[in-house]
Design brief:
Layout (H helix, E strand, L loop, with lengths): L7 H8 L17 E2 L4 E4 L5 E10 L8 H10 L3 H11 L5 E10 L25 E7 L7 H6 L12 E3 L3 H18 L77 H10 L2 H15 L5 H15 L1 H11 L11
Antiparallel strand pairs: 1-3, 2-3, 2-6, 3-4, 4-5
Helix pairs in contact: 1-6, 7-9, 8-9
Length: 332
């Protein structure tokens, strides 16, 4: 198989207990949501900041072990969905606290790693979490298809003061999410009740299959002389940034001094995970690498991947696979 070092932090989290959510419900513990992408905020004075969103459970976190997850998969595939539904039905509402990491606009250029790299997290000691609100799931859908299957989330739908960053995943998703909605729900997906804006929208969208709201004989071009809607860029301008050389082009990111794909996974293993967490991580990696994986790929996974995250991790995985692995170059 191919090796993708840039995904290593996510892979460590997925093979750790964090990747094995046990329950959504508020009687047990539940999962947390972390921003991978970076966005921009702009205040009324025009001052800009880079931000990440975090949704922190107010009940703590509880996860399956890998063995428990495999057993539950065989027993009840809808276990988590039913748990979430039942919690809301009995008014034991699942709740998350919204906390933000906020980076001054000027910090990004010389920060020690690229803050727009989706594979990196911002250390809390540099940019501590700031609570700003709560999200409460206080009711269940009346009709699953109409209100869940047809829902369309579109990254490009920003309210004034919020915009994209140089994060290339965000820039791709500005197009991709709306395109996905058009494919799934049709050209007029934003007229479905679950997707329709709360306030009236004035624009020049028209026609397409299943369109039922229209603007009469309004001209289809702007500006026009017949009272059609027009943008108000003074009140609702799009947040933007100054583009310097190398920021927006089809090349790799400009490297910062700590843009090493193994630094943050190593820190996660050594400083964040408990001894039990590390035991489970090793067990999960060994189990998956034992499922029909060829020996030379197992060896490469140790010397070129897990051993570079941390030499102890590489040694333990090798031992679990019955391999005497050489010390990887760059191991910690």
């Amino acid at each position: 198989g191919e090796r993708f070092d840039v995904e290593l932090l996510f892979v460590c989290a997925a093979f750790h207990d964090l990747g094995l959510l046990k329950k959504f419900s508020s009687t047990a513990d539940r999962f947390e949501g972390y921003a991978s992408s970076t966005y921009m905020w702009e205040n009324a004075a025009g001052k800009k900041f880079w931000v990440k969103y975090h949704f922190k459970t107010e009940q703590g976190v509880q996860n399956f072990t890998d063995a428990e997850a495999r057993a539950m998969r065989a027993e009840d595939l809808d276990y988590q969905r039913r748990d979430l539904w039942e919690a809301s039905a009995r008014k034991d509402y699942p709740t998350w606290r919204l906390e933000m990491q906020i980076m001054p606009y000027e910090d990004a250029a010389n920060y020690r790693f690229n803050p727009f790299d989706i594979t990196k997290v911002w250390p809390h000691k540099d940019y501590p979490l700031i609570p700003i609100g709560r999200m409460v799931l206080d009711r269940n859908p009346d009709n699953f298809f109409a209100q869940v299957t047809q829902v369309a989330f579109e990254v490009a739908n920003f309210i004034p003061g919020i915009g994209p960053s140089l994060d290339r995943m965000v820039l791709g998703r500005l197009f991709a999410y709306g395109d996905s909605a058009r494919y799934r729900d049709g050209a007029n997906y934003d007229q479905l009740p679950i997707n329709k804006p709360i306030v009236e929208v004035h624009n020049y969208n028209k026609d397409g299959p299943m369109r039922y709201h229209h603007s009469g004989n309004q001209p289809v071009y702007a500006p026009n002389s017949y009272g059609g809607p027009r943008a108000d860029p003074q009140r609702y301008r799009d947040p933007s940034w100054f583009v310097e050389a190398g920021e927006i082009m089809r090349t790799a990111y400009m490297a910062h001094k700590d843009d090493d794909d193994f630094i943050q996974p190593g820190t996660l293993y050594r400083q964040v995970m408990s001894p039990t967490d590390r035991d489970h991580l090793v067990e999960n990696i060994v189990w998956h690498l034992s499922q029909g994986v060829e020996r030379f790929i197992q060896e490469r996974a140790i010397t070129e991947y897990w051993g570079k995250v941390d030499s102890d991790l590489g040694t333990r995985v090798a031992r679990g696979l019955g391999i005497t692995a050489p010390q990887p170059t760059g191991g910690r």
